[in-house]
Design goal:
Blueprint (H helix, E strand, L loop, with lengths): L3 E5 L3 E6 L2 E6 L3 E5 L6 E3 L4 E6 L7 H23 L6 E6 L7 E6 L4 E8 L5 E2 L9 E2 L2 E2 L9 E7 L5 H21 L13 E2 L3 E7 L14 H22 L9 H5 L6 H8 L5 H9 L1 H5 L2 H18 L5 H20 L5 H7 L9 H15 L2
Parallel strand pairs: 6-7, 13-15
Antiparallel strand pairs: 1-2, 2-3, 3-6, 4-5, 4-15, 8-9, 9-13, 10-14, 11-12
Helix pairs in contact: 2-3, 8-9, 9-10, 9-11
Amino acid sequence: MHWETLTASAQFCLRRSGRFLVTELLLPHRVLSTSAVHGGQSDGIRYLVNHQSCEASGHHARHACMTTLGPEEYHRSVCLELGLPPDSVATMGTAADMNYATVIQRGDDDTLVTAAVTAGVQGNAACAGDPTTWRETPAGCSEPVLTAGTINIQLLLDCPLTEGALARAVVTMTEAKTAALRQLAVRSRYSTDLATGTTTDQFCIAAPLGDGVPRRYASTGIKLGEYIGVAVRDATLEALRWHNGLEPSYTRGIFHALGRYGLKEDRFLQDIGLYLTDAELELLKNNHNAVMYEPLVSAAAYAIASILDRCRYGTFPAGTAREALRQQAACLAASLAGRLDLWPEFRNSLVEADVEEPKKLVLAAIALGWSKKWS
């Protein structure tokens, strides 16, 4: 195998080859991981492996092969392919291409943190607490379909940690991953909430077993925690930019803002056609992106999504929510039309402010603004 070194130090070497991203720990480390084999906490792990275990869609033969082998035999097969001793390896699997792996280091002269992340969220993003149909039984956990979308994190620390601090680093790392998803307004695929991760996220954290005094704290309120947070957050953002094409400017679209509340791009032209004349609809078809990515229109769409969130969380009464929705829908229409002077007229016209079915209000606002723009 041809190996490319991504980063190296006296403590570890992180390399990539084809479907594999491997960190060799050059000194004894304490590792905490989600690895199906040798997972949990261990002082005997010497290799951290992230690898593309299947393609993102329709790779049923590969999925059947992994299921038939079982976790122990599959672990051994991965190690055999890499020429590594199975008892010294912690593995993570994903459908993500290892060429999209992002490595980011943050720290100072006293502390250095390295995060190596692969990330995909388009098919499997979830919010903690979302409903699920999977259940683990003595016979195992049956996965009905091969679902693409996993965030895998290798987190390498250059200082010894107590066992408690190592566990706390998991919390900080997870919060950082979620912070990245919130920045991009990634929605859950299983509910109307914003995502906190995916259903298949994995991690490996390694800290050296040195002679120095181990660090006792890794929370967000201390420099080590800050560096963990920044490294993991930024590496997750960059990995999502490469793998899913997600970056802040691309998330301004109205479908990104309101997709979790029913406004779907693949049905939009069909749905909006009920509100427009044939000529208006044809013009909208020909200028679709310019309308859907107009920044002030998107700002109003995000405001509508926030109101709907707050209503679900019980921040204010439903009656107040309806009026707030009408106001923001009028802003959306006025922004699209470029006619802020017509805001009162738009507000009076937009009466279908149903908190339980907001798509109708949004479609009516888009249609109203588009019609008035050229009238």
